[in-house]
Amino acid sequence: AIQLCKQLARDRIKAGDTDEEAEVLVRTNALQLGLGFTNADIQRWIQEAKPVGEPIRGGTFPLDAFTKEYPFMWGDLLMSGSWTLFSSKPEAGKSTIACELFAALLLGHESYLDQPILHRPDHILIVGPDMDGCQWASYFKAAGLMKETANGCLELDRRITLFSRECPLQLNSVGIETIKRECGKHSNSLILIDTYRCVTDSLNVRENDPSYVKPLRDLMQALASANLQCTGLVNHHSPKSSHDTDIEDAASGSNAFS
Prior knowledge:
Elements: H1 2-14, H2 19-32, H3 39-49, E1 72-74, E2 78-79, E3 83-88, H4 94-106, E4 111-112, E5 115-116, E6 123-127, H5 133-143, E7 146-148, E8 154-156, E9 160-163, H6 173-183, E10 189-194, H7 196-200, H8 214-225, E11 230-237, H9 254-257
């Protein structure tokens, strides 16, 4: 019976289904067969159904085959083309720091928090369902990213795209495609996820379960497959009681993230 489910997963992936679509069908089939299973089991079957790409094999390559560089964007804390987890207790200032960093990157500052600005994005995409538009506007104003114009309007820096609580994105297939489409309009996007819990709360994934990080991996894979140069910053809550713990244990779902 398990082999039938695995074969169904292979068939659906081969047919072009997204992970989410295949998961629904495989779960329904497993229930009909009376199988005991977990979400992690189904996701593992789907991952196992995917073909493996061609590896890099020893041989001769063009001189420019491996010239893609990943310079640091902000000191040695944020590397271009990579993803960084920013974890602290709720209401500890993660969003404030992010917006002030964005201002330093977009407005030509030489440094932020004594760390040099080394590389600048041409676009910042904020996936921020943790706050509504008015709350985000207060952060933008404080950071100098939103200003009043001479004719009495407010103008947000045109290099910023915001999905707030009013138009929330989840890291499901629709949300990932939306992020990919927005980043495809630019050559070097910086993506802020604020917060990871908010963009996964409808996806039936649990913190401290290995599947918790899967939506983020799916996003990273989708962006890489589209050859998009993106940098990611993920704001994530640590438990309010966490103190005197190491940096990995301080993050909710740290077993999955690490």
